[in-house]
């Protein structure tokens, strides 16, 4: 059975009193409330700059609504028609545009994806094939950022060709307003085949009578240049575009051939022999407009992944004839203000406010509404499905490895209904995919990209955050089957290493060896072991919440398999025969996109167990310090080598919060603030690393609020300090979470915190805070206060309960009044029992005869003191009556900070006794026991 391991510790009066007195003094002496003007953000959409992250974050600047199906945004070119300049279609440093395509993903890696159906307004006459324009020398235009506007729901650029383009969207439609220069032919190219990574088919038809261009493209090929398993199409996007000006002429092209007057064309780029679209191949069509009535042309465009008729129906429903561009734009702005306005931050600087709302904006772009207005959507079986009752939308585009770490929790915090529909959507996808939960889904295709089984962590997190309105029991059944049934794909190396085809690569080894070996089918055995441990922890939590105790137990145990790849202080790759390959903590061998040193921390569900294996809190703190800093003391937060942190990528993003587990919450406050202030900005380079469909931006949003979800499947929040003096979160289902933190912009350090009016020393919040809301009142300072926040967040282990916890304890004479025997069984390493008596012993009364399986002793260094004071020699005894004792453990020469001792079979007793024989490593005479734990068999 999994259980939270956190200090119960109700009784630490002396320490608590000292902290309270210090805080009281600080509060009286430093009136900070008036330091920051509280500027209410009434139109948060105004604070969004959609150019943020467009140089390196791989975001796109174009128009989209929250979770919208359409993302109408520029396609830059650097002179090669077969390569998008950056995965989002746009790179801030590349100021030439070859089209405005209807779909995009924000922050992907590889060579992008989607970018379907580029429209290019061209000032001139089409006389050669656009597909033959291999260097984009003719049908493209430069532009200046001075002539560009990038707002939430609106994008505008005046190209150097003289054409001004404005774009806005509803969920499934777009409105374009194109103003052509006088004296030039007003042409519109529709480059049907030119999805970012090409197409296998495309077709287009022009109907001058209805001023309509419609068609479709069949694409996929996400990361197809890396591996042949991805070199395939798996979706078709249909579009219909209706213009408000008559067509003066029409034409089409395929490959190098232009057909003036043509009204239909077909032909994809193909993916060539190497997964790249082929230069010179492809098709499209064009029209010229009769601009005698004015140089401005309006377009209304509907899309669908199901059918041409659904694209038309979406257009009719959301953007019917007569709807003005400005109406659609206003609705898009309103939609953003509604969703962004669920979090109100006040009192920050303009730059902080812009960074925050731009990050929140980027957090709410994906997954995307995928069903049409009539409820139909394409399943992963390539069949048309219809929403069932209770599901308001089907969502697509699940960047699993990224978004399970916090983005889906943020979405669900704000919109439990959306979170639940995302969970149901993932279940539907799995049901339509032979029960396989693909780790990275693009539209209705599974791409398998990255590692682990992230849906198994994501759905339990959504449920924990209140997104319960999906068929959770069916999801659990399906996920358990996937996690216990070895498939042919699990036994395959196809796609290795970036896109291994199996949902659980080498699941057979997981079931037999209890880790994924170095020579298994996963991208990296050690990293996969961590990912699978996390996924199985998620399943154990969902099972627990659904009342399935045996499944909770089964997966709770599997969640601890990470221990099998912990060796000599690190998570390490391990051979199938149990031996360890040569090891370098800076190497990424065994890991995806990270080193052993970076991945070693990635045990979010049992940080306590990890720290214990490292040697206790003091060791963990020291290692974290060196992880985040260079040897000269400067920060090492990215690009600092494999032994240092990489806060620009997912494996490291939780780590600044880990100090909270070691009793040094002030160092979390310091490190998180440093990352917020130095790696993030409201600029094109202001997102560190690819934004990964909002995963990185969601980290920023959480961290700027001073909160962070960590353990998948759980809804406790870790606490740092907010960046803003005032934060209000209004959940879509009612509760409000409010944070008051006067002086926050310049004072990151928590001196005290009250939760709903009651002081707390916890550096975390219980699940009830997310569920029911509440208020946090921070007292902050510019000076670190290491004594606040020493109550660690929960960790989860499979060991049975510590039966000694909180039981009556006696012992030899204590060193002083605040180092008494009960402090060795109070669950906290913030205090200890100390004795210098000639015969040193600690005795616990369990209250009833109890079968014992193991003991854990937390020594001096586990509590932050020198390891020289760790207990060297000791015995552990049990007794039925407190008189007749049986010695069950004889520990000699111990040096560990935390020592664990299996009890012999049959060990049981009501009384436990720890006899300290040699209390220290040196000749010192004081026994120091921070915790004495006994685990039931
Ligand atoms: Ca990343
Ligand atoms: Ca203690």
UniProtKB/TrEMBL annotation:
Its EC number is 3.2.1.-. It comes from the Bacteria. The keyword Acyltransferase does not apply. InterPro entries: 6-hairpin_glycosidase_sf, FA58C, Galactose-bd-like_sf, GH-type_carb-bd, GH92_a_mannosidase_put, GH92_N, Glyco_hydro_92, PNGase. Keywords: Glycosidase, Hydrolase, Signal. The keyword Signal applies. Coiled coil: none annotated. Residues 791-937 form the F5/8 type C domain. GO terms for molecular function: hydrolase activity, acting on glycosyl bonds. It holds the Pfam family F5_F8_type_C. Residues 1-40 form the signal peptide. NCBIfam families: aman2_put. This is GH92 family glycosyl hydrolase. It comes from Paractinoplanes bogorensis.
């Amino acid at each position: 059975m999994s259980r939270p391991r956190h200090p119960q510790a109700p009784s630490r009066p002396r320490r608590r009193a000292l902290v309270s007195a210090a805080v009281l003094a600080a509060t009286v002496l430093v009136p900070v409330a008036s330091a920051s003007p509280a500027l209410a953000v009434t139109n948060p959409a105004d604070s969004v700059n959609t150019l943020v992250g467009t140089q390196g974050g791989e975001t796109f600047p174009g128009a989209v609504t929250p979770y919208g199906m359409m993302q109408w945004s520029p396609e830059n070119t650097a002179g090669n028609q077969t390569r998008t300049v950056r995965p989002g279609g746009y790179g801030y440093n590349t100021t030439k545009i070859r089209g405005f395509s209807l779909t995009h993903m924000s922050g992907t890696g590889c060579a992008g994806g989607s970018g379907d159906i580029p429209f290019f307004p061209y000032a001139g006459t089409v006389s050669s094939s656009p597909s033959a324009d291999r260097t984009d020398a003719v049908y493209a235009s430069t532009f200046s950022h001075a002539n560009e506007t990038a707002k939430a729901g609106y994008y505008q650029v005046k190209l150097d060709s003289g054409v001004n383009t404005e774009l806005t969207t509803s969920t499934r439609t777009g409105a374009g307003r194109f103003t052509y220069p006088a004296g030039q032919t007003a042409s519109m190219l529709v480059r049907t085949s030119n999805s970012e990574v090409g197409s296998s088919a495309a077709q287009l038809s022009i109907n001058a009578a209805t001023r309509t261009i419609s068609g479709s493209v069949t694409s996929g090929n996400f990361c197809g240049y890396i591996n042949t398993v991805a070199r395939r199409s798996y979706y078709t996007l249909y579009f219909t575009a209706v213009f408000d000006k008559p067509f003066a002429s029409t034409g089409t092209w395929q490959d190098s051939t232009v057909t003036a007057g043509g009204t239909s064309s077909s032909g994809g780029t193909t993916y060539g022999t190497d997964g790249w679209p082929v230069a010179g191949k492809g098709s499209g069509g064009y029209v010229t407009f009769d601009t005698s009535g004015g140089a401005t042309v309006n377009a209304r465009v509907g899309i669908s992944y199901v059918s041409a008729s659904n694209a038309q129906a979406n257009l009719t429903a959301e953007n019917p004839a007569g709807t003005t561009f400005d109406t659609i734009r206003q609705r898009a702005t309103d939609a953003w203000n509604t969703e962004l306005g669920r979090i109100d931050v006040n009192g920050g600087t303009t730059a902080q406010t812009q960074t925050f709302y731009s990050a929140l904006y980027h957090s709410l772009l994906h997954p995307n509404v995928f069903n049409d207005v009539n409820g139909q959507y394409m399943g992963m079986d390539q069949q048309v499905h219809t929403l069932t009752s209770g599901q308001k939308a089907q969502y697509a585009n699940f960047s699993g490895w990224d978004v399970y770490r916090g983005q889906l929790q943020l979405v669900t915090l704000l919109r439990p209904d959306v979170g639940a529909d995302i969970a149901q959507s993932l279940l539907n996808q799995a049901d339509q995919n032979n029960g396989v939960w693909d780790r990275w889904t693009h539209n209705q295709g599974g791409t398998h990209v990255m590692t682990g089984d992230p849906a198994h962590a994501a759905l339990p997190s959504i449920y924990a955050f209140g997104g319960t309105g999906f068929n959770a029991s069916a999801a659990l059944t399906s996920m358990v089957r996937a996690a216990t049934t070895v498939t042919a794909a699990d036994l395959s190396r196809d796609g290795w290493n970036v896109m291994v085809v199996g949902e659980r690569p080498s699941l057979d080894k997981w079931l037999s060896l209890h880790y994924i070996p170095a020579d298994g089918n996963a991208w990296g055995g050690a990293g996969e072991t961590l990912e699978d441990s996390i996924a199985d922890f998620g399943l154990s939590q969902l099972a627990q919440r659904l009342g399935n105790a045996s499944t909770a137990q089964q997966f709770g145990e599997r969640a601890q398999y990470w221990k099998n790849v912990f060796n000599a202080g690190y998570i390490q790759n391990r051979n199938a025969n149990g031996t360890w390959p040569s090891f370098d903590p800076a190497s990424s061998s065994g890991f995806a996109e990270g080193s052993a040193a970076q991945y070693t921390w990635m045990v979010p569900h049992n940080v306590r167990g990890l720290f214990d294996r490292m040697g206790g809190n003091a060791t963990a703190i020291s290692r974290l310090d060196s992880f985040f800093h260079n040897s000269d003391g400067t920060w090492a937060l990215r690009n600092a080598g494999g032994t240092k942190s990489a806060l620009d990528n997912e494996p490291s993003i939780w780590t600044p919060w880990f100090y909270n587990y070691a009793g040094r919450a002030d160092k979390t406050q310091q490190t998180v603030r440093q990352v917020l202030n130095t790696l993030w900005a409201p600029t094109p380079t202001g997102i560190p690393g690819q934004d990964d469909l909002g995963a990185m931006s969601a980290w920023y949003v959480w961290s700027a609020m001073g909160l962070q979800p960590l353990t998948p499947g759980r809804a406790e929040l870790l606490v740092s300090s907010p960046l803003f003096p005032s934060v209000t979160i209004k959940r879509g289902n009612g509760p409000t979470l409010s944070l008051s933190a006067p002086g926050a912009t310049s004072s990151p350090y928590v001196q005290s915190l009250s939760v709903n009016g009651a002081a707390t020393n916890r550096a975390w919040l219980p699940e009830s805070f997310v569920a029911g809301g509440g208020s946090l009142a921070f007292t902050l300072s510019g000076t670190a206060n290491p004594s606040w926040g020493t109550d660690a967040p929960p960790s989860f282990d499979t060991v049975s309960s510590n039966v000694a916890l909180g039981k009556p304890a006696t012992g030899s004479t204590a060193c002083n009044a605040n180092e008494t025997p009960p402090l060795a069984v109070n669950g906290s390493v913030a205090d200890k029992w100390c004795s210098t008596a000639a015969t040193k012993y600690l005795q616990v009364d369990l209250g009833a005869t109890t079968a014992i399986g193991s003991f854990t002793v937390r020594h001096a260094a586990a509590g932050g003191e020198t390891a020289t004071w760790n207990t060297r020699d000791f015995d552990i005894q049990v007794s039925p009556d407190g008189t007749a004792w049986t010695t069950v453990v004889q520990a000699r020469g111990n040096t560990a900070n935390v020592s664990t001792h299996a009890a012999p079979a049959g060990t049981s007793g009501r009384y436990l006794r720890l006899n300290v024989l040699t209390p220290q490593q040196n000749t010192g005479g004081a026994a120091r026991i921070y915790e004495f734990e006994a685990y039931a068999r």
